[in-house]
Amino acid sequence: MQYACSMSQDERSAGDLRNTGMSLRHDRTWDYELERIVEAVEERDAEKVGMQFPEGLKRRAPHVADDLRELLPDGVRVMISGKPCYGACDLDTYMMRRTDVFVHFGHSPMKDSEKIIYVPLFSNVEVTPIMEDALEELETGDVGLVTTAQHMNKFEQMREWLEERGFTVHTRRGDERLTHEGQVLGCNYASADIDADQVLYVGGGKFHPVGLAMEHPEKNVVIADPVNNVVTVADHEQFMKQRYASVHKAMDAEKWGVIFCTKIGQGRWEQANEIVENNDNAYLITMDEVTPDRLRNFDMDAFVNTGCPRITTDDGPRFHKPMLTPGEYECAVGNKPLDEMEFDTFHGTW
Ligand code: SF4
Fold first, then answer.
1. What's the distance, CA 311 to chain centroid?
2. What's the mean pLDDT in 58-74?
3. 25 pLDDT exceeds 60?
4. What is 127-234's CATH number, 3.40.50.720, 3.90.950.10, 3.30.565.10, 3.40.50.11850?
5. Residue 337 C-alpha to ligand 1 middle, in angstroms?
């Protein structure tokens, strides 16, 4: 299972709460911003429109295509990308080149381009009721505030709500990989580099806050999840244990597969090549989807993934051989002490 960055597995499965003991508080509806797409088609005199959806919303794609076709002039063709999509790092470049308007749903822009229309699909869920519940886990005083692209439309409301309750709210826009102040991605928590020992994450699922807790183990990360209607504190211990176990297993490895991911926003070419240049037993493997199945036939002792760090940390145990981040690789081969091991983050775009 791979994870979407701004629409996590937990979020994707929200609604199916049969075994969770939780109750869903709201109905989900999304605004696909079809008028904006129609305007772009008219402005550009477009003949072909491409649409790309995150995994959790692919089932809605034919309905959106139907609605759009009704609004568009006859003769404009609407196409749907079947390529897996886990973030704005993951644009269908093949389709992009072959369409006049390319619409990417579900993620905020990682890089602006005239060709692409990003439709973020803001959530309509109310956030303050679950923030009220989260107060029990927060100490009054300084607090960092972060969220995902889906809840960005409520960010100012969240900030004001906390300030009205006496908190000093710290926020920042991380770096150019992030569109908004306070936004986090599964691979980038620069927005949480703030002067506060506690951070409130308001958003669906644990995917983002657990990454945040791994990146900032010194901070208390409180999760107010308005999607699943639950408050928890992010626990990164289990993940860290898994990471140490993988590094230990890889310490005896001789043959290394070094993965360069060809997805447009996941390439770290220099880093991948540097590893290969400095290790005669390392082989550069280029690939798009990094999955256990695709690596199984390679006769390697261990892998280093320079693509999405969350494939490594979250899916790592599913691979047949240890799968490490570049930083973990440095520890496994003895270039760095184990206690300097850090959570892998991704900066920059492409
Ligand atoms: S590289 Fe980052 S933005 Fe892309 S899917 Fe992974 S965590 Fe999300």
1. 10
2. 96
3. no
4. 3.40.50.11850
5. 27
Name the pLDDT band for 5 (thresholds 50, 70, 90): low
Q: Which residues line ligand 1 (CB under 6 A)?
A: 5, 86-87, 89, 185-187, 266, 308, 310, 346
Q: How many CA atoms lie within 13 A of 338 on its CB side?
A: 11
Measured in Å, residue 24 CA sits from the centre of ligand 1 at 27
Select the CATH number that applies to the domain covering 34-119 from these four: 3.30.950.10, 3.10.180.10, 3.40.50.11840, 3.40.50.1000.
3.40.50.11840
Please tell me the distance between residue 301's alpha carbon and the centre of ligand 1 in angstroms: 26
Instruction: Give pTM, 2 decimals.
Output: 0.90
Kindly list the distances between the CA atom of residue 65 and the CA atoms of 50, 94, 152, 350, in Å, as whole numbers in the listed order: 10, 19, 26, 29
Give, for ligand 1, the residue of 310, 325, 347 to mutate: max count of ligand atoms closer than 8 Å to Cβ.
Answer: 310
Helix/strand/coil for 128:
helix
